[in-house]
């Protein structure tokens, strides 16, 4: 089987922007907050953009070719979702549940995620964490309207990675664009929405009760894992129970515009690789009995899904290229 890429799904959001529209070739006039570039989530399913499998959804591929496009997955469905986020305004302060809570009360999976910072303007920071000692402290701050004074922040720069386990209070702030790699889930509990009012004069719903159930408040276990949350500087790699993300920089120090080729093996045997093109252009080529000399071209904003049955593949590039490789 051969690699595929998908048509992005633009999602309008009240906090979205317009800067990424040219990358994703969208003509929508409203602000776009999210571009889902690889998704098997039932309400927004990615569709193959080109090639012999064009028009088929990721769920179609998983159902018809499970060995190729699902591989040894921890779930019977495709377990990861990749999207681009553009925040022209602050996102709500929010938290996501873990698998246990989500499966018990929402009939869904939890949401641990990670961000790769594309651009950081404005305040150049994110909301990440809180200083509540207990659930009672949190509920008291909600009741008195003092939630903002308990939020914690981290400065960010382009190219950094941020790891956000389920239960972490967080918010993307205005002027920031990121690539988000997450569990396949759409469960979000809003804690605070900056007193924002829609054009219709309404405030968005908050989910205080649910949030109080899932926020990670200090315990011996959370204190032990506290340094695993936040900005990952060196090496640029995140290893979590749900995904592994690594940055690959393909440099250009060769003359006369010559191309260069490197061979890669799957990040995990019998599981697919996902290649996200952050900068530059790259050609991915596989050569096996089922797909002789098949190649896939990726530009910024595109994701290539490399089948779990491909033992190795080649990257071919001419100018500097920055990629993220993801697998589970």
UniProtKB/TrEMBL annotation:
Q: Which UniProt keywords apply?
A: Metal-binding, Zinc
Looking up Pfam families in the UniProt record yields:
PMI_typeI_cat
One GO MF term attached to the UniProt entry: zinc ion binding
Domain of life, per lineage: Bacteria
Boundaries of every Phosphomannose isomerase type I catalytic domain copy: 14-103
Q: Is Zinc a UniProt keyword of this protein?
A: yes
Query: Which protein is depicted?
Result: Phosphomannose isomerase type I catalytic domain-containing protein
């Amino acid at each position: 089987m051969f690699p595929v890429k998908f048509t992005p799904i633009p999602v309008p959001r009240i906090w979205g922007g317009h800067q990424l529209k040219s990358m994703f070739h969208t003509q929508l006039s409203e602000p776009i907050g999210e571009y889902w570039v690889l998704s098997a989530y039932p309400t927004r399913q990615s569709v193959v953009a080109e090639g012999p499998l064009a028009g088929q959804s990721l769920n179609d591929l998983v159902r018809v070719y499970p060995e190729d496009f699902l591989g040894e997955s921890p779930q019977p469905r495709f377990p990861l979702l990749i999207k681009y986020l553009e925040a022209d305004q602050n996102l709500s302060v929010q938290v996501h549940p873990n698998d246990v809570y989500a499966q018990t009360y929402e009939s869904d999976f939890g949401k641990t995620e990670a961000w790769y910072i594309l651009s950081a303007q404005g305040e150049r920071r994110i909301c990440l964490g809180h200083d509540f000692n207990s659930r009672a402290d949190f509920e008291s701050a909600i009741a008195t309207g003092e939630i903002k004074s308990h939020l914690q922040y981290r400065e960010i720069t382009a190219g950094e990675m941020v790891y956000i386990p389920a239960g972490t209070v967080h918010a993307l702030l205005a002027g920031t664009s990121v690539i988000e790699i997450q569990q396949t889930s759409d469960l979000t509990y809003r804690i605070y929405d900056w007193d924002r009012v829609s054009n219709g004069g309404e405030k968005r719903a908050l989910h205080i009760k649910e949030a109080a159930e899932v926020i990670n408040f200090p315990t011996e276990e959370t204190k032990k894992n506290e340094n695993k949350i936040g900005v990952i500087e060196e090496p640029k790699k995140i290893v979590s129970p749900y995904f592994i993300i690594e940055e690959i920089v393909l440099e250009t120090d060769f003359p006369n515009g010559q191309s260069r080729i490197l061979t890669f093996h799957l990040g995990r045997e019998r599981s697919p690789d996902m290649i996200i093109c952050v900068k530059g252009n790259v050609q991915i080529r596989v050569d096996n009995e089922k797909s002789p000399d098949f190649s896939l071209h990726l530009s910024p904003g595109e994701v290539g899904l490399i089948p779990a049955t491909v033992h190795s593949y080649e990257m071919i590039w001419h100018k500097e290229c920055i990629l993220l490789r993801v697998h589970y």
